[in-house]
Amino acid sequence: MDDEIFSAQVLSKLPLADATWRVLHHVMADAWLSDLWERKRGRAYERVLGFSTLAHLIADALVEHDGSGRQAFERAQEKSALPVSIGSAYEKLGNLPQPLSEAMLEEGTQRLHELLPERPPVEPFPLSACWNGYEVFGADGKAIKHVQRLLKALRGLQAGILGARASVALNLRTGTAVGMVSHLDGEAGEAALTEQLLSMMAAAAGDKPWVVVLDRLYCNLTFPSRVLASGGHFVIRYSSNTQFTADPARPAQQRCDAQGRRIVQEWGRLGKSAGVRALYVRRITLHLGEGKVISVFTDLLDEEAYPAEDVLAMYRARWGIETVFQQITSVFSLKHLIGSPPRAVLFQLSFCLLLYNTLQVARAHLAFHQKCEAAKISNQKLFYDLKRQMISVSELVEVPQLLDLLGEGSTSAELREYLGDSLRRTWSVRWWKSPSSGGGGHKKVKQRVLGNHTSTYRALQKAKE
């Protein structure tokens, strides 16, 4: 009884860990993991080591041990929680089916969305009012690097090695990755994978209209047509590789934005004007000065309903997915790959994205109570404190007692209410994102140094002169 009281007090003093354990316990419930395995395992099978046990061990490796699978496996062996050898655990990880990794992210994120605060919606990438009622997605490819040369076939290669490749869809309203489509070949084409993401975006949008924001790789006739066929809309960076023919019956419009930069809107056909496949689009070009421009095109033709400034602002929000990739690599230990085989690499990517989404749930509740944009709270600083608290719980509370305290059978609504109440009293000023220097408006001019090296002392002395 005393141990139960002590364990409850530990959780009460570590609210971030308490909230995260409850979210992971809800999202990664053994019953759901077992069902997921049965539906997506293909020809894979279980003997002694179950998929749910392996998934929880990978979670421990990523959250508590900086991506070290051996640390997680050895500690599990000490507690008799790993029923096989460490080598067998690595082999099991390297043979997990691709569909299993993809479905774990997609379905796990759907379960997480039920825990986000209801009102008002907290948007990490604030969007203009003209997009109210729309689900907005960004998509991009991720080639997984940092593969260790542990496999015999890799040891003699003097080249950079890519573990696998995936294309990931990000919901710009919630800041969560809603799905991924993967390929075992790290040098596979990205565009073909992103085409398969469209059905996931349509499913994530539900009954709402949706729009996807993409980079210039998708400036062609095929991909925009696929988006329209899937029921969505697009905003894509324009590339001169694809011809644009202005409509002579609809003259171009020019205006200036709030910073005095010129914006040109044109209507016309993408592709050869006489071609059957040509698309009628609106092209928006922002002139940045010194001959530099940003140009996007969209099928949303109404300039009053969808102002040019709002379309350009939404395209800039697409950079959020690059931030996600950077953070799962540096913060969630994707640069420390647990396994070398492509299937192991893809499972770790899926898990890192799911952990990132879990952190967004906590960040959304904190932002709701602080009455601020979620983007003002640092993922890195929040995860640093979360990791410290999770390790403390693991060291002080035994697993059976932890599971008893977390309880069973909580509905999504009950857990969302618990998170809102628990995180209401949890805040630290350390979690504010550090102010950006903004570059100061200075151009980066690099100076070549004689001999290609110098010292800090000499550079400081020269700067004084």
Features:
single chain; 465 residues; alpha+beta; ten-stranded mixed sheet; 16 helices; 45% helix
Verbal overview:
The chain has 465 residues and is of the alpha+beta class. It has two domains: 2-215 and 318-424, no CATH class; 220-308. It contains 16 helices and ten strands. The chain has helices at residues 2-13, 15-27, 30-40, 51-64, 69-78, 86-94, 98-113, 190-205, 222-229, 308-317, 320-330, 342-370, 379-396, 399-406, 412-424, 456-464; strands at residues 135-144, 164-171, 176-183, 210-214, 233-237, 244-246, 253-256, 262-270, 279-289, 292-298. Strands 1, 2, 3, 4, 5, 6, 7, 8, 9 and 10 form a ten-stranded mixed β-sheet that branches. α4 (51-64) crosses α5. It starts with a helix and ends with a helix.
Portion in strands = 15-25%
Please tell me what the overall shape is: globular
List low-confidence stretches.
437-442
Number of helices: 16
What is the total domain count? Answer: 2
Global mean pLDDT = 89
As a percent range, the share of helical residues equals 40-55%
Radius of gyration: 25 Å
Encode the helix/strand succession as letters: HHHHHHHEEEHEHEEEEEEHHHHHHH
Number of extended strands: 10
- What is the structural class? alpha+beta
Our measurement of the CA-to-CA distance between the termini, rounded to an integer number of angstroms, reads 72 Å
Major beta sheet summary: 10 strands, mixed
